[in-house]
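Justification of resources, computational component.

The compute hours requested in this renewal are based largely on the per-chain cost of generating structure records like the one below. Each record pairs the submitted sequence with a full structure-token output. That output is archived, and it is also reused by downstream analysis tasks.
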Amino acid sequence: MRHRVAGRRLSRTKEHRLAMRRNLVASLIQHETISTTIEKAKEVKPFAEKLITLAKKGTLSARRQAIALLGNRDIIDYEDGGAVRKGTIIGKLFSELGPRYLDRPGGYTRIIRLSLRRLGDNGQLVLLQLIGTDESSKRQAKKHARKKAKEAVKVQEIAEDRSTAEAEEVAEAEQATETQNAEGQNSREQ
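The structure output for this chain reads:
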């Protein structure tokens, strides 16, 4: 019996599970979306979210904890037939992902089920993704648009008030000049 034993074994040894979890999270951080089985995705998701929470802290201590949990492999892209180093996993985690999720209290990843099945064992495939900036920017854009609309209405009202006040001042000034001109002509006639 496995009472109070957390986690899935995934038909692997402890060391193999740990290495697989590290590799999947490193790939998730590098590519921001990966395709895997539903069981692996459910095991990796909490680990990835803990690392992003560490990245939100941004301290040296948090960086060292993340390196201890994940390792610090290089991000390598292939350009013009050669390998080019683009940085490290921890560097991307702390410089890009941590600041991206500062306002978000949790839920940095999502699992999207695919209709595909894996060849060989017919395992259910899913996409494990980091929640992108597009969702948060859409929400912020809506709030920002509402604020802008309210501000625009206020600005229009202020502008209308100013223009009516200016028009009244101009009318008063014209009346004052007309009365001065009329008084000047009356004094000349006398």
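The first helix runs from residue 14 to 31. Residues 132-190 form one domain.
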